[in-house]
Amino acid sequence: MESNAALSAFTALSQQTRLDAFRLLVRHEPEGLPAGDIARHLDVPANTLSTHLAILARAGLVTSERHGRVIQYRADVDGLRALMLFLVKDCCAGSPELCAPLISELACC
Q1: Where would I find the HTH arsR-type domain in this sequence (predicted)?
Q2: Which of the 8 DSSP states describes residue 15?
Q3: Residue-level pLDDT at 87
Q4: What pTM value is reported for the model?
Q5: How big is the CA angle at 76 (ends 74 and 81), to the nearest 5 degrees?
Q6: CA 80/CA 26 separation, integer angstroms
Q7: Are 53 and 74 in contact (CB under 8 A)?
C-alpha cells in the first residue's frame, strides 16, 4: 500500500459514523449487511449513511453488491489487511519478538 492510499483510508476512518460503520461490517464478515440494517444499527439516516459508505468504498475499505433492490455491504478485508501491514511493515527494527504481543492479539481474530 502506498502512503496516499493509506492516507485516504485513515481520512475515511477519521469520522465517527464511518468508523462505526466499518467496525460493524468487520464484525459481520463474511456475510456483510444490507445498507438499511447498517443505518438502523447506527441510527443514521439512509441518505447520510450512503455518503459515508461511498467514502469508505473509495478508500478501499468497503465493497458492495446489489441483490435486487438491496445493496449488501462488506468490509474489504484485503484493504484492511493492506492498511494494517502498512502500519507495521517496518515494525520493531528487525526484532520480530517485539511484535509478538501484537500478533498474538490478532491471532484470535
Answers
A1: 1-95
A2: S
A3: 83
A4: 0.87
A5: 145
A6: 9
A7: no
- In the chain, the domains with their CATH numbers are 3-107 (1.10.10.10)
| Spatial contact of 53 and 59, defined as CB atoms under 8 Å apart | no
C-alpha cell at 69: 433492490
Distance CA 23, CA 5 (A): 19
**C-alpha cell recorded at residue 11:** 481520512
Q: Kind of pairing, strands 70-75 and 33-34?
A: antiparallel
25 CB burial (10 A radius; 0-12, 13-18, 19+) = buried
38-51 mean pLDDT: 95
> How many other C-beta atoms can be found within 10 angstroms of the C-beta atom of residue 68?
5
* CA angle at 27 for the pair 1 and 108, rounded to the nearest 5°: 80
